[in-house]
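Format is sequence with structure; example below:
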Amino acid sequence: MSLFPTYARYPIRLVRGKGSRLWDDQGKEYLDFMSGLAVTNLGHVPDRVRDALVRQLDRLWHVCNLFHTEGQERAARLLVENSCADAVFFCNSGAEANEAAIKLARRYHRKVLGNDRYKIITFERSFHGRTLATLTATGQDKVKDGFDPLPEGFVHVPLHDLAAVEAAVDGRTAAIMIEPVVAEGGVIPVKDEFLRALRELCDRHGLLLIFDEVQTGMGRTGKLFGYQHSGVEPDIFTLAKGLGSGFPVGAMLAREHLVPAFSPGSHASTFGGTPIAMAAVTATLETMLELDVPAKAAEAGEYLMRRLREATGDLPNVKEVRGKGLLVGIQCTHPVADAVAELHRRGLLVVTAGPEVIRLLPNLLVTREEIDEAVDKIAAVLRERVAGTVG
């Protein structure tokens, strides 16, 4: 084995994918309700993105960011025209995007406002990445094990506890950072009124509001960006995962008043915004906008949750079906790892969101027939568990 054992890999070797389907090296077919962890939002190998990448491979692969490139400017323009943001910084991953957001918030307070605010308030059960800063921002102890000492300046409070947030604000607080749906931590949609209260609190105290949209962005929740459900506009938000349809890319987006904080030389990424990545981003965005993919995700998500509730409503081992768009969680009364393994054996790929939650992340163009197929398998496995024939 030549790889570090950092992943608890499933015993499946995948070799090919198209649309909602994947195939392993034995020729077995799987219905994919993971989407590479919310990455292949247009399905596997979407035609328009593939064609854009092939064309770009014949033109230009890489130039450093000391030069202008048409692809970066076009992709950034599409993002700005379709969001509340005014400027974009491209990078390679969600962790890098969140790292950039943290740096921008701190530098804005120091260099533009001239104060010494640096603390970021985040929430319990959140997940923001694996760099030292972003794992410290994460509200889960398991990702921090063995990485002490951690950077200072992060405060964690319970979700939906406004009094705890207010109590955590002091003269060194720079920003509040939150996911519109707490995804890895259990698929918990954040209440709109809580997000509105955070916006008001930030405005009152001169803080920045940061939305981590790495998993909720790019149509996943039934809107192009998750913040659009609440009407709350963040000062900064981050994207990755579905942004490039499987090509590695991330982005940090911010409002105009924050632009002066990132002056030349203040932040950089060698591979951020390469011509190849920008071809993937542009084709992905154009497809989503022209086909109104977020609206399709909203409709499919409603159907998926309705079918799940109908199929599992009488099961004592299912507590709740929740989510937003096609980011859906089945809260069970017991650990679900063995149920997930059984679903894989039956040709349905799903993943957990904590020990007792099955997380469903189909692509945003999933059909009702594919949803029915998935629901039937999930209900069968959970029903068999009640009867004692599985697990």
About this structure: The chain has two domains: 14-32+292-387, 47-290. The CA atoms of residues 82 and 261 lie 23 Å apart.
